[in-house]
Amino acid sequence: MKKISFAFLLTILSFACKKSAIGETQIYPSPDPVGTYALGADVSWLTEMEATGRKFYNASGEQQDLLKTLKDKGINTIRLRVWVNPVSGYCNTADVLVKAKRAKAMNMRLLIDFHYSDSWADPGQQNKPAAWVNQDFVTLKTSVYNHTVDVLTTLKTNNIIPEWVQVGNETNNGMLWNDGKASVNMKNFADLVLSGYNGVKAVNSSTKVVVHISNGYDNSLFRWIFDGLKANGAKWDVIGMSMYPSVTDWSAKNTQCLANMTDMVSRYGSEIMICEVGMPVSEAVACKAFIKDLIVKNKSLTNNKGLGVFYWEPQSYNSWSGYKLGAFDDTGKPTVAMDGFMP
After folding, report:
1. Per residue in 266-289, pLDDT tens?
2. Among 262, 297, 305, which residue's Cα sits nearest to residue 277?
3. Any catalytic annotation for residue 271?
4. Is 170 in the active site?
5. Could you say which of 48, 62, 163, 170 is catalytic?
6. For the segment 25-39, what is each residue's pLDDT rounded down to a tens digit?
7. Which entry of 271, 276, 283, 313 is annotated as an active-site residue?
8. Is residue 40 within 8 Å of 74, Cβ to Cβ?
């Protein structure tokens, strides 16, 4: 092949630009340049599933690395939960690093989700890590800060900088109960959020901090939490939401979610991310429509305030750990639901 000189390339580029400038040729940028809108999946079960022999396949039945399969479905961002001292070892700092390295190798972006617990933290349980149970509140705030810094520093040492970090998971009524239970002491909850926020910024000032609440259609819940946090000095960059509708109500719930997202932008100036979605694997066609519609609604927010949508553990086929809201079939292949992330 003939070599083309650099000068010749510059001439061609200059000519193309001139044509565009005088209107003879119009070049339209992609509506979603790489690095803007997050199409995501939480795959925190990945290493545990692989350790028990689970394998993943593309639609043609070819065995693949799960992240490759997801990337081919449009996923560009991975979400990983962090537990403090989990009994199994999965989702501790070392395990998170393994998965984060894999995501980085696939040129995928990263959302880190701190539960501040040894196990699941969600609207029904926000248990302190065993090592923190007897700490007074001042020490508890320090533990939140130090744990946040330690995990993010481990990632940074390996040249991994998350774009977003959640300080707490589905904190509908605060976290680290009972000290940080919002309905008991909103000020304490705000202080814990601020400790996490400060920990994130101390390691990577550019990383955006997410406060994550479930039921993204429930405006009164979101106003209560974020009014309380704001009044008590907490800081955040992004408001995170979960959406788990049914096949019969997803359209109505999405409409309510849009109204809530719009209110959150207007009320607090926050960016909005849908950190978790899911629907029964048996309802894959409806799930695809749900995802596509929610992405459109999130993208429609003013000033590009909508940041992305994440499926929660889509790869959990054969009801992994009893979970039935995945988006892979019983043979380990993605269902049509995952096409919701495709253009």
Report:
1. 999 999 999 999 999 999 999 999
2. 297
3. no
4. yes
5. 170
6. 332 233 334 458 999
7. 276
8. no
